[in-house]
Specification:
The complex is a heterodimer.
Chain A lengths: L16 H8 L12 E5 L3 H13 L2 E5 L17 E2 L11 H11 L6 H20 L25 E2 L5 H19 L2 E4 L2 E9 L2 E9 L5 E5 L2 E4 L20 H8 L4 E2 L4 E7 L22 E5 L16 E2 L1 H5 L9 H16 L8 E4 L1 H7 L1 H19 L8 E10 L2 E2 L12 E3 L17 H21 L13 H20 L5 H16 L5 H21 L11 H25 L23 H4 L1 E6 L8 E6 L14
Parallel strand pairs in A: 1-2, 1-9, 2-5, 9-17
Antiparallel strand pairs in A: 3-4, 6-7, 7-8, 10-16, 10-18, 11-15, 12-13, 12-14, 14-15, 18-19
Chain B lengths: L2 E10 L8 E11 L4 H14 L22 E2 L2 E2 L21 E5 L8 E3 L2 E2 L2 H10 L19 H11 L6 H5 L6 H13 L7 H15 L8 H5 L7 H23 L1
Parallel strand pairs in B: 1-5
Antiparallel strand pairs in B: 1-2, 3-4, 3-5, 6-7
Helix pairs in contact in B: 2-6, 3-5, 5-6, 5-8, 6-8
Classes of the chains: A alpha+beta, B alpha+beta.
């Protein structure tokens, strides 16, 4: 199949496109909706919201999650908040301003029409979630409160303490549960997608594996929606939950869905540094801490004194020094790289010299411990629980960690991938954040896609299919996909090698972090591209999975996910290698200004790179979708 | 950093319908900076290296928010540290040479799936019965149309902080589901948006709860074990609404 990247952006001024689209699209009459089956994979904000809404509208929905309950999806871990252009503070916010900030924050690598629609729908998200009972923070007068986040000069972030993602997901889960109770949605829990089935060039359904029994079965439908999250765990250590993986998106990719901008990964600057080699994941500390904390490291690499004994003249407040006007509140990509620079110079702190200080001593002196406790008490407690150090008494130690992936399955304006009838929503798609996502925008995108975009666009595909039946699951394509999946999992068990899936995953993650992490170079990426296939080959020969394939076996589940990460990792490196510029989360050592800042190349790289599977993970085909900026002018981001 | 040499007594059970037993597993050389689950990861890695099957346990976010992790550790749900889920518990809370007993949640409503993994679907059934506000996508009024006093919003948030882990049930001598159900009911019943379905909600959720769980006899173990320290005051609130519902719903029937 040859891929054509038709973004299907409606004509007209950016502000009218979505309204025009919604009127022009084909509709399915309410009485006919029950004649359609829709599969939704993933029950986070994007998937749960889509499944609930499609169920409400009258479609037959089958929802799938590999968790024990729909409420566990990783959307739950988001802390800070959700952006919306409500302008409740009267500080000059507008749909256009949110649109502008998001395009600029994404370093001009996102599609304008999609971002504008996101900003438009942001307003309705807050209304919808409030109506569902999400307990957003309020002022004493009873109206909704807002806070500020990076990359914006207005207060537009709505929040529910430090657990906004949890509260939004529980809202979505409650709506989904209502539909399950009503029988409009059938929920399959502890069930993992292992393949996507395409018949006659259209998505026909999925093959899944029951994680409790190992049974492999097929499900067919008129359309398939993947809302399966991001691929940060390709790095092994990230702030993502342990089970997050790329398998669903990758299996779709292998069946013809193009994978866009895989090299756009976000490194969050304030995470707790790794403490030992057995560490399984990293923990994020909210961006909000940088409002009152000052980031520094010692000037001398051989410094041995504890932080409180290091006098001012021996400290380097490097962010304040390099970016005087933004200081400690420099955007995520910039703050992360600056930390890497000082740690690489040997000036890191902590037992492993792998962090920098985030110091609250000045703020405590100025405002008193009580105020700081009120603002950050829960975060300080979490930090102390993990490190056994009190941030009231000594500075926090922080270091950047992989946090979010802006890349994902390529989708058009309707959120359809390059496979007709196969959709991707939320973090699983690539569409709205360009090369860098602003804080508090992930929740916004997941909910916009799930509640307001997909339920409007999917009818355009379904309407002409009225009267057709889904492909039966005994169709040879389904049977073949099932057999392949069974062989694949039996194959992992049969290798009988010496090393666990985790051991390989850890090694892959190390390669990715070293060569495709915060700073990439041609040399490093080429090295990674020679090491990854070799390690993958070892994986195929030396993997050890104990236990059986007929009962719960977490080692076997992991093996399948790591196998797919190996293939993804190669296209991540290839994408990073071919994108000869620095933009947002993608920083190429060769492309920086004399002062070490990212250097974009709009002439050659103002485009989306979408990769097509060719059967050989080392040689995918690169396609290009040019990006046009009609409403936001291309400019250099400066935070000095 | 200290190094701990531990002995684990771990519950192993091949499936829901077979007998289980304790396995004694030596766990030497444990770095006390590790989290409890990282310690189990390491033990599993060693088991796989020995050609043995890894211990099955539920876990995911490891930040204390998703509610997937569980474990009775030395007889305490989520272990010895108050207000802390197992994934946030660290090995520095244990001493060198200690024997640690690790069991799954023990409750009839939570059948064991394998080893330390249990099935908590009963919680989902309670939510499906009424743990929502009917607000279909598209028709919501402006979010600031109904001001909600801060103390009310804060109180709803206190209840909504429940992570649905099931520690309350595991800690309860009666395996009662009151704290979970009360948290879900109170979150919605406290808010103005939740008033229209207030009494139907509480009745449907409590009745579904009783299909699965034991009765509450005010031991208070649930609050003690809750990693989010949710107050049993919410149970009183739920009981009050449940009682009122029995009168009000009857009156609604009489009127029709």
């Amino acid at each position: 199949m040859t891929i054509t990247l038709d973004s299907k952006i409606p004509d007209g001024p950016v502000a009218d496109k979505w309204t025009k689209y919604k009127f022009d699209r084909k509709l399915v009459n309410p009485a006919n909706r029950r004649k359609y089956d829709i599969i939704v994979v993933g029950t986070g904000l994007a998937g749960g919201a889509a499944a609930a809404t499609l169920g409400e509208q009258g479609y037959n929905v089958k929802a799938f999650t590999f968790h024990d309950s729909a409420r566990r999806a990783h959307s739950i871990a988001a802390q800070g908040g959700i952006n919306a252009a409500k302008n409740y503070k009267g500080d000059g916010d507008s749909v256009f301003r949110l649109f502008y900030d998001t395009v600029k924050g994404g370093d001009f690598r996102a599609r304008e029409a999609n971002v504008y629609r996101l900003a438009e729908e942001s307003v309705r998200i807050i209304d919808q979630m409030t109506a569902q009972g999400v307990p957003f923070a309020r002022e004493y007068g009873g109206l909704l409160d807002n806070r500020s986040f990076g990359g914006a000069q207005v207060s537009r972030t709505f929040y529910a303490r430090g657990q906004t993602g949890q509260q939004l997901l529980l809202g979505v889960y409650s709506q989904l549960s209502r539909q399950v109770g009503l029988g409009n949605v059938t929920l399959h829990n502890r069930t993992e997608l292992v393949d996507v089935v395409v018949v006659d060039g259209r998505a026909a359904g999925i093959v899944v594996r029951d994680l409790l029994t190992g049974e492999v079965t097929s499900h067919s439908a008129h359309a398939v929606v993947l809302a399966t999250g991001g691929y940060s765990n390709a790095f092994f250590l990230s702030t993502n939950a342990m089970a997050c993986n790329v398998t669903a998106a990758w299996r779709a990719h292998r069946r013809g869905a193009a994978f866009a901008n895989p090299c756009y990964t976000q490194i969050h600057p304030t995470c707790i540094p790794q403490s030992d080699d057995f560490q399984s994941k990293l923990t994020l500390m909210s961006e909000s801490l940088r409002n009152d904390g000052r980031i520094w490291c010692p000037k001398d690499p051989d410094e041995t004194r504890p932080p409180e004994q290091i006098p001012e003249e021996d400290r380097d407040y490097y962010l304040e020094r390099r970016y005087p006007s933004f200081g400690n509140l420099a955007p995520r990509d910039i703050a992360s790289r600056a930390a890497k620079v000082v740690v690489d110079e040997g000036r890191g702190v902590g037992p492993l010299k792998n962090g920098v200080y985030l110091d609250f001593a000045d703020a405590i002196n100025r405002l008193g411990e009580g105020t700081i406790r009120e603002r950050y008490g829960n975060l300080f407690e979490m930090y102390e629980r993990i490190t056994d150090e009190s941030p009231y008494k000594q500075p926090m130690r922080i270091y950047p960690a992989v946090h979010y992936t802006m890349g994902g399955l390529w989708v058009d304006y309707e959120l359809m991938t390059t496979v007709p009838g196969l959709y991707a929503t939320g973090e699983a798609n690539f569409s709205d954040h360009g090369a860098n996502r602003l804080g508090a925008s992930a929740l916004m995108q997941g909910l916009a896609d799930g509640y307001f975009v997909l339920p409007n666009t999917i009818s355009n595909y379904l309407a002409p299919q009225l009267g057709t039946q889904p492909v039966p699951t005994d169709h040879p394509e389904f049977q073949a996909a099932e057999a392949t999946a069974r062989d694949r999992f039996a194959g992992y068990l049969a290798i009988g090698g010496t090393r666990s899936p985790d051991a390989f995953h850890q090694q892959l993650g190390r390669i990715m972090w070293d060569y495709c992490g915060m700073e990439r170079t041609k040399e490093g990426l080429e090295k990674a591209l020679s090491e990854i296939p070799a390690l993958h080959e070892e994986f195929r020969k030396d993997l050890r999975v104990t236990g059986s394939g007929e009962a719960t076996n977490q080692t076997l589940e992991k093996a399948g996910r790591v196998d797919d990460f190996f293939e993804l990792a190669q296209v991540m490196c290839l994408d990073a290698l071919t994108r000869e510029e620095s933009c947002g989360g993608h920083f190429r050592g060769e492309h920086q200004t004399d002062e070490g800042e990212a250097e974009r190349d709009d002439e050659h790289f103002a485009h989306v790179a979408a990769w097509e599977w060719t059967g050989d993970p080392a040689n995918p085909t690169r396609h290009v979708e040019p990006l046009e900026f009609a409403d936001v002018h291309l400019a250099v981001r400066s935070y000095k | 950093m200290r190094e701990l040499n531990l002995t684990l007594k771990v519950w192993r059970q091949d499936g829901p319908n077979v007998a289980g037993h304790f396995d004694v597993i030596a766990a030497p050389g444990i770095n006390d900076e590790m989290s409890f689950l990282e310690m189990l990861d390491l033990v599993n890695e060693r088991l796989i290296n020995e050609g043995k099957e890894a211990i099955v346990f539920d876990h995911d976010c490891r930040e204390g928010i998703c509610g997937t992790c569980s474990l009775m550790i030395n007889g305490q749900a989520h272990g010895p540290q108050k207000g802390t889920a197992t994934c946030q518990l660290h090995m520095r809370k244990f001493t060198d040479g200690e024997e640690i007993v690790i069991e799954p949640w023990r409750a009839t409503a939570f059948p064991i799936v394998k080893d330390l993994m249990v099935d908590r679907a009963a919680f989902d059934r309670i939510v499906e019965a009424g743990g929502f506000i009917t607000a279909e996508t598209g028709g919501a009024p402006d979010a600031n149309l109904i001001p909600i006093p801060k103390p009310v919003a804060d109180s709803a948030m206190d209840a909504a902080a429940c992570i649905g882990c099931g520690a309350c049930v595991a800690a309860c001598p009666n395996s009662a589901g009151q704290l979970f159900t009360a948290a879900k009911v109170s979150h919605l019943n406290l808010l103005p948006q939740g008033q229209a379905e207030r009494y139907q909600r509480v009745e449907a959720m409590v009745d579904t709860m009783e299909d699965f769980f034991g009765s509450c006899t005010n031991h208070g173990e649930c609050e003690e074990a809750c990693p989010k320290e949710i107050s049993i005051d919410f149970i009183a609130l739920m009981n009050k609404d449940y009682l009122a519902a029995k009168f009000k719903n009857r009156r609604l029937i009489a009127r029709s």
